[in-house]
Write a structure and sequence with these properties.
By secondary structure, the chain is mostly beta strands. The chain has no helices and 25 strands. The strands form 8 sheets. A 4-stranded antiparallel β-sheet has the order 3-2-5-6, with no helix packed on it. Strands 8-13-12-10 form a 4-stranded mixed β-sheet, with no helix packed on it. A 4-stranded mixed β-sheet has the order 15-20-19-17, with no helix packed on it.
Length: about 280
């Protein structure tokens, strides 16, 4: 593998004064390498295999007097480097970008380590230099992927023993905190309960949200009472009127709480018979 380098040879030529006090400035250059001679210039191109040290010779002639010098050219390779890291990550996360090779580093973020953490989308570039001062640049474009916007629809207030259907939206797949993998979840909580769901977008990013359900109580009240046959029973919210038959009877009535939940009151009413008087 070859590469052409231009070398400017800075040759300082001492001048001498003549008898009439004038300086002599006329001089000529010759440079040669591998038998090839170049005249009249101080800049020369070398094309050589990489890693090779070369010698260039120059002869300076002034007023028919000449002197020679030589310079050494050492061609160092560009640092061999690699850059690695995830080119995509989910918003809110981060990813490492790492370069290998070289001895010192300068990122476009100002960091000087060989590894940095990217928190947002953008192009991250780094200049890598080696011990000889040779440098190269590597870059990587990072994209932060959008998270799904998850919502849950469903009744947030319900009565004891009632059921409601929760429906998740905004992603491609879902898993609830009870392990159910579905966009919908039928629940019938017996106490205040929070349900959460994690949704996964087509790009692989996930997000979670939750919904809290308030459960209002219902009541099952059981009452026992008694009355004499033929009497009216108007108590405990019951208006039963005259009880003409004796025996044990069950009566129920539905009540509604301030939250709209139904409660049941059950009355077990014992009707005692009238006493039978002996004949006169």
């Amino acid at each position: 593998m070859s590469k052409t380098y231009s070398l400017l040879l800075n040759i300082k030529v001492d001048t001498k004064e003549t008898n009439d006090g004038k300086e002599l400035h006329s001089y000529s250059f010759k440079a040669w390498k591998d038998g090839k001679i170049t005249k009249g210039a101080r800049a020369f191109d070398w094309t050589e295999p990489m890693f090779k040290k070369q010698t260039g010779n120059m002869q300076v002639t002034q007023n028919n007097c000449s002197a020679s010098t030589q310079t050494f050219i050492t061609q160092y390779p560009t640092p061999h480097t690699t850059i690695s890291g995830n080119t995509q990550f989910c918003a809110g996360d981060s990813t490492y970008i790492t370069v290998t090779g070289g001895d010192s580093y300068l990122w476009n973020t100002g960091a000087t380590a060989n590894s940095i953490v990217a928190h947002q989308s953008g192009n991250y570039s780094v200049t890598i230099s080696d011990e000889h001062g040779c440098s190269t640049t590597q870059s990587l474009t990072i994209t932060a992927l959008d998270l799904p916007q998850i919502t849950i629809n469903g009744n947030t207030q319900l009565c004891m023993n009632d059921a409601t259907l929760l429906t998740a939206n905004g992603a491609n797949s879902y898993i609830w905190n009870n392990g159910v993998e579905s966009a919908t979840l039928s629940v019938s909580p017996t106490e205040n309960t929070t349900y959460s769901v994690t949704g996964t977008h087509a790009n692989g990013c996930t997000a979670s949200t939750s919904i809290s359900l308030i459960v209002y109580p219902t009541f099952n009240i059981e009452l026992d009472d008694e009355i004499c046959q033929g009497g009216n029973y108007n108590a405990n919210g019951f208006m039963l009127g005259s009880q003409d038959e004796f025996g044990t009877f069950t009566h129920t009535r539905n009540l509604q709480t301030s939250y709209g939940c139904d409660s049941i009151v059950t009355l077990t009413l014992t009707v005692h018979p009238k006493p039978i008087l002996p004949a006169a």
